[in-house]
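Entry 12.
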Amino acid sequence: MDYTYLLNTPVFRGLDIAEIMSVISSTPYRIRRFNAGAMIFQSGEPVNSFVMVISGSVKGEMTDYSGRVLKIEEVREPGSVGAAFLFAGKSVFPVNVIAVTDTELLTIEKNDFLRFLRWDDRILANFLGMISNRSAFLSEKIKFLNFKSIKGKLAQYFLQISGPGGSTVMLTMTQADLAEYFGVARPSIARVVSEMENEGIIKTRGRSLQILDRERLAILTRE
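Predicted 3D structure (tokens):
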């Protein structure tokens, strides 16, 4: 393994290469490889290991009883998978985890990971920070899902990425990405964006989005 790569990973933040080599060399781990499209973990499967993406990306998604697929998030290197559930009372994956691209994962079994966390307080603090950030992300996701209309979801998303008082932003997600993120059909996203433009609320040009009427966007978030 290229230990210098681990310098950029959240769990090793603040450690130098010698310290990383010391803790990794004394910790049992595995490198697992998956082809794009492979099912890595299934919803309900026990979370027995700390899992970190060291190359490629994976996505978490769930399917409802109607067969609708909802993408929860995409995790790219050097993110972790299922870390928030490793020490939970019900320690299972809540979603299916699928390889988006050819992917390599570093895995450390739960008991070995406990010893890993005790090696240095910085590692423990980094891990707790990762869990806290995951909780914040899931809270935002729940907020989006609570909006009944697609307009409400998009309005909240546009306001969030623009920040307080912002008016022009570059979109990081395509309409297809947004459709998957919100669990709706892509034509529905295109239709609602077009309606917002016709109503003078926003203006788009490629990946550039200009907010013309923040007040009306805020009103839409109540739908």
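Annotation: The longest strand covers residues 69-76. The chain has seven helices and eleven strands.
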